[in-house]
Amino acid sequence: MSRFARGFILFISQGAYAGRFPVAPGTAGTVVGLLLFLVIKSLAPGWYLSICVFLFLVGTWAAGRAEKVLGCTDCPSIVIDEIAGYIVAMFMVPTSWGFIIAGFILFRAFDIVKPWPLKRLQDLHGGPGVMLDDIGAGIYTNIALQTAAFFISR
51 to each of 9, 78, 84, 90, how far by Cα in Å? Predict the structure, then answer.
């Protein structure tokens, strides 16, 4: 693999190198997801969903390749899954700072605890094993935030 290809794969999979943060790289990756959310939050739902799908596909590819480059399975420095998961978590959620922060905290909690069946998704091999548990944590977070938004708006 060329040096350029290796660098490109690591740049994507490590969330513009946020995954190299020495403490809590997953949280650093989620911060990158939050920053990306601030850029795309005003998009129409179809475009936003397209970005979710794109992040999942590119993330699955990059994470699978990065595992080979780094020589470890679901390496802590691979944070594209946290970025994609947070973007999924915030799909069609109110964009107030309360929801943005609640989404951050809930997503990190679901990602760390990995309630059923997320832990089993992590056991898949390659890129899907890296990505799917965080996408699931994003879905759980989204359900919680949508429920809160429903009751707050009543």
Answer: 19, 19, 9, 12
Who's near 40: CB < 8 A, 6+ residues apart? Answer: 47, 48, 51, 87
Count of Cβ atoms closer than 10 Å to residue 119 Cβ: 12
This prediction's pTM: 0.95
Number of domains in the chain: 1
Q: From residue 47, give the alpha-carbon distance in Å to each of 43, 50, 51, 53.
A: 6, 5, 6, 10
- Domain of residue 29, residue span: 3-152
DSSP 70-131: HTSTT-TT--HHHHHHHHHHTTT---SHHHHHHHHHHHHHHHHH-TTTHHHHHTS-HHHHHH
Q: What are phi and psi of 105, to 5 degrees?
A: -65, -45
Residue 9 contacts residue 65 (beta carbons within 8 Å): yes
C-beta of residue 61 within 8 angstroms of C-beta of residue 127: yes
Neighbour count for residue 9 (Cβ, 10 Å): 21
Q: Tokens in use for 142?
A: 């989204």
pLDDT tens per residue, range 94-123: 999 999 999 999 999 999 999 989 888 878
